[in-house]
């Protein structure tokens, strides 16, 4: 598994491997259930993660959106769009997490 995954996540997946496989299958089915391409799907999931102020999900979806072809500027815009819905503090926190992920890639 990638180095950036939290130990609690990898431990959970090891302990409940059948549940993790089922979750992975569900996630793949949900992603494939509509017309959105992977890049768009990742940007939407990033927006949801920003709204939930879920740090791990923000970081994960930044990585996945960039891997799917989104630009840093597109990812930044998704985070910025949270400003008028989720508020300034949540948006700044998500922007920090985004920048930390981008910094890891450089």
From TrEMBL:
Which chain positions lie within coiled-coil regions?
none
Q: Where is the Carboxymuconolactone decarboxylase-like domain?
A: 18-100
**Protein's name according to its UniProt entry:** Carboxymuconolactone decarboxylase family protein
Which InterPro entries has this protein been placed in?
A: AhpD-like, CMD-like
| Pfam families per UniProt | CMD
